[in-house]
Specification:
Blueprint (H helix, E strand, L loop, with lengths): L7 E4 L5 H9 L5 E4 L3 H4 L1 H17 L4 E5 L12 H15 L23
Parallel strand pairs: 1-2, 2-3
Length: 118
């Protein structure tokens, strides 16, 4: 696997198209997509929204190289585990990601300055 370049996280639906131009001007060349909602995942309208988004990202030379997914209530909660995993798989499929890598858990509660080398 190649190393990823420095990129920008794009929370779908919360940034203006002009933001992509700013990222391009300062030299960012990759993006990470966050919060792929039903607006992009469902039906003909979702396909149209997705196509327009991908076209804008390609035009500004910010192709998505990864996707950040999160699940309401957490992935592990038995009450919603199956539904959340299906939603995550839909997002991965939308992004064309064949081999997902994931981190499950929370950040350490200790002071990060005392963690030392990993």
């Amino acid at each position: 696997m190649d190393k990823l370049k420095i990129g920008a996280m794009l929370r779908l639906g919360t940034f203006e198209p002009s933001y992509l131009e700013i990222l391009q001007e300062i030299g960012i060349r990759e993006s990470q997509i966050c919060r792929v909602t039903e607006k992009y995942l469902h039906g003909e309208a979702g396909m149209q929204e997705s196509a327009e988004l991908m076209q804008r990202l390609q035009q500004t030379q910010l192709p998505p190289t990864s996707i950040f997914v999160a699940a309401p209530g957490g992935i592990i909660d038995p009450k919603c585990r199956c539904q959340n995993m299906v939603n995550i798989c839909r997002q991965l499929n939308w992004a064309g990601i064949v081999t997902p890598f994931m981190q499950v858990g929370t950040y350490p509660t200790r002071n990060f300055a005392t963690l030392g080398p990993l």
